[in-house]
Fold this sequence. Notes:
- The chain is mostly helical.
- Helix content is 87%, strand content 0%.
- Helix 1 (5-16) runs antiparallel to helix 2 (21-73) and helix 2 packs across helix 3 (78-96).
- The longest helix has 53 residues, at 21-73.
- The model has no long low-confidence stretch (mean pLDDT 93).
Amino acid sequence: MRLTTKQLIASAHQAARYLPLASCQLMRELATRLDVTRVALSESLEQQKVLMAERDSAIAYEKLWESEMKKAIGTENVDDVVMAIEKLKAQARRVQV
Length: 97
């Protein structure tokens, strides 16, 4: 018999009723801790999904930006884009001075 975690927790609480007091308390404590761990893991997995989606979105945006910069510079080389940005920064510094 294979139980889900929720079913196992419910079964442990049910079975605890038929145990001696010390064993009952121990069984209930184990079931409660298992339930808390299950909830924490579920929340952690949901947070991971959100973070992975944010990461994927950021990567897609960065690729789009890189592609647009290559078009604007008229090159296929990322190094040329970096050099062009550095030239623009240098020009901006000269204008500020």
